[in-house]
Amino acid sequence: MRYDVLTIFPEMIRGYLDEGILARAVKRNLIKIGITDIRAFAKGTHKNTDDRPFGGGDGMVMMPDPLYQALDSVPRVGEESLVLLLTPQGERFDQAMAWELSTREQLILLCGRYEGIDERIRKLCVDRELSIGDYVLSGGELAALVLMDAVSRLIPGVLGGDKSTQEDSFEDGLLEYPQYTRPRVFMGEEVPAILLSGDHEKIRRWRRVQSLKRTLDKRPDLLEKARLTPQDMAMLEELKGNADGN
Ligand code: 4FV
Questions:
Q1: I need a labelling partner for 149 at 20 to 30 A (CA). Which of 22, 75, 157, 167 fits?
Q2: Cα 117 to ligand 1 centre (Å)
Q3: Does residue 137 have its Cβ closer than 6 Å to ligand 1?
């Protein structure tokens, strides 16, 4: 997988790539990351990348030409490259979309600033618009980093041998079960005995029930799309029964 990030703040992206799974994945050549400074394609003495909006109004808009030149400068790998604009107006980014994007050869991430980008770039150059949530950031850089982190974890080999994505939250659409580690007793709170039993089938079932219970309590909306077995459905009915005090 190759990512190309287009931004007027390249150090913001570089900083995050110094450590953690993305840094390790780059070192292990599992992913490549190109960072393009849009300002390098700005003209004039002041190298402006933004200007006042036609029609008036507050704030500034990112100019089309520097964006177009910067996009044009990105080397395309293979047929499968996608230009993604990070914007609150986009499709909601989630785990399912992370899986879908993880199969691509190249993701070109356009990070807006100010009030956004000139509409003609969205029309002429952007394949998909993605949002990480219904709130307004000061720039698309954080959203680009969120996307790269979530997608890269799904690329084979990126997560060290001891970790698979199978157990992750949202993997089968449920929230993850509670996790414990040493000490066995912390501030008087004991680790559930079942986790010390060594009975892996019992532990697997306990964890499934915990995931179902948590999802029912915290994110019942997820249950519609979750991949549930008949046992899960039966357990959910029981949990709902308990919840209603029956
Ligand atoms: C955003 C989001 C986001 C909006 C104006 C960049 C900012 C500025 N991107 N999910 N929420 N972007 O707020 O992706 O140009």
A1: 75
A2: 11
A3: yes
CA of 143 to the centre of ligand 1 (A): 7
Looking at residue 165, its pLDDT comes to 63
Share of the chain above pLDDT 90, in %: 87
Is the pTM higher than 0.70?
A: yes
pLDDT (tens digit per residue) in 48-91? 999 999 999 999 999 999 999 999 999 999 778 999 999 999 99
Pocket test for ligand 1, best of 111, 136, 147, 149 (most atoms within 8 A of CB): 136
Residue type, 143: A
Which of 86, 109, 141 is the pocket-test mutation for ligand 1 (most atoms within 8 Å of CB)? 86
What does each C-alpha distance from 109 to 128, 178, 195 come to in angstroms? 10, 34, 43
Which among 186, 176, 165, 238 is positioned nearest to 208, based on CA atoms?
176
Exposure of 203 in the CB half-sphere (CA atoms within 13 A) = 13
Handedness of CA 148, 16, 161, 157 (dihedral sign): positive
Contact 9, 139 (CB under 8 A): yes
